[in-house]
Amino acid sequence: MDTQVKICGLTRAGDVAAAEQAGANFLGFIVEATSSRKLTLAEAAALITGVKAHTVAVTVDPDDALVDGIKAAGFSHIQLHGSETLARTAEIARRGLIVIKAVPVASADDVTLATEYSGAADLLLFDAKAPKGDTQRGGHGLTFDWSILGLAPTPKTFILAGGLTPHNVREAALKTRASIVDVASGVEASPGIKDATLINAFMEQLRG
């Protein structure tokens, strides 16, 4: 299976090394956003030194200074996980980073609305909606009904997130035909602390 893998919410150098060694294509770092996996930009920048995989700075409603800092730090991608408008997404894209726009979905209507970002972002990431009242964006370990992705037009290339684990990743990839799968809590011992055994199991199950 040619599906690529993004391991997100990395906080430690050893976990970055384990993810790369396992064959992850994208490494995600939550930068200056409300999360149990939050890093400062300086901390995240230190972790990507020498990394060969694509590096993704995950942000929530970043201002221009943060976007420019992320670019200067050497990240290849920026992931927008907030309430960024279509216009703001396009504006960030013009600042020279590859843009991933994360969109929470629970219905086919949500998917249809999300595809409006296709012209502004380079990639769309479909994630499960957060529990009501929860301010953390992503990393909840919740799945959504994958069949809704077949009820509305979706880009040829997209990222699937939301509750993926070694136990369900292969089924998810086969059912959705996602180009990239994204995992955070599904390969953790605790929030922000990855488990190399789970990372390897995730990769092995996906590859079959």
From TrEMBL:
Pathway: Amino-acid biosynthesis; L-tryptophan biosynthesis; L-tryptophan from chorismate: step 3/5. The keyword Isomerase applies. One of its GO terms (molecular function) is phosphoribosylanthranilate isomerase activity. Keywords: Amino-acid biosynthesis, Aromatic amino acid biosynthesis, Isomerase, Tryptophan biosynthesis. Residues 5-204 form the N-(5'phosphoribosyl) anthranilate isomerase (PRAI) domain. Its EC number is 5.3.1.24. It catalyses: N-(5-phospho-beta-D-ribosyl)anthranilate = 1-(2-carboxyphenylamino)-1-deoxy-D-ribulose 5-phosphate. It holds the Pfam family PRAI. GO terms for biological process: L-tryptophan biosynthetic process. The keyword Amino-acid biosynthesis applies. Belongs to the TrpF family. PANTHER family: N-(5'-PHOSPHORIBOSYL)ANTHRANILATE ISOMERASE. NCBIfam families: PRK01222.1-1. This is N-(5'-phosphoribosyl)anthranilate isomerase. It comes from Algimonas arctica. The lineage of its organism: Bacteria, Pseudomonadati, Pseudomonadota, Alphaproteobacteria, Maricaulales.
